[in-house]
Design goal:
Blueprint (H helix, E strand, L loop, with lengths): L26 H10 E12 L6 E7 L2 E6 L3 E9 L3 E8 L2 E6 L3 E2 L2 E4 L2 E9 L1
Antiparallel strand pairs: 1-4, 1-6, 2-3, 2-5, 5-9, 6-8, 7-9
Length: 123
């Protein structure tokens, strides 16, 4: 006597798609987004050939002012992502050198005495 065995087939229930519904992101997409965001970046500013206080260096993230310094030092900026723009402008009676600690274009800036303005594009 043989018994026939039927396998249970589960039917997946799918919810109807709503208009303009964004599909869920997979693990790979979420991981790639995490690689883009930086916790924070640091700009190192070195001012030479003048007295402390005789210079002004203003830093902005995507046109929003972040910090102004008047002598050599570091500026830390949080929530920076690929494609963001860091603006550096000001004036100095001496030379100004600015380094950034993440991949960017350019990787550093050098300014001669006078007014200056340039931008880092975060890679």
């Amino acid at each position: 006597m043989s018994k026939s065995v039927k396998k249970a087939v589960s039917k997946k229930k799918t919810a109807p798609k709503k208009a303009n519904q964004t599909p869920p992101m997979g693990k790979a997409a979420i991981h790639s987004l995490a690689l883009v965001a930086e916790d924070s970046i640091t700009l190192k500013v070195k001012i030479t050939g003048t007295n402390p206080g005789d210079s002004t260096v203003k830093v902005s993230l995507n046109a929003v002012p972040v910090q102004t310094i008047h002598s050599s030092g570091s500026i830390t900026i949080g929530n920076v992502k690929s494609g963001d723009v860091i603006s550096v402008d000001g004036n100095s009676e001496g030379s100004v050198h600015v380094d950034i600690n993440v991949p960017a274009d350019p990787v550093s800036m050098d300014f001669t005495p006078g007014f200056f303005n340039d931008e880092f594009l975060i890679s």
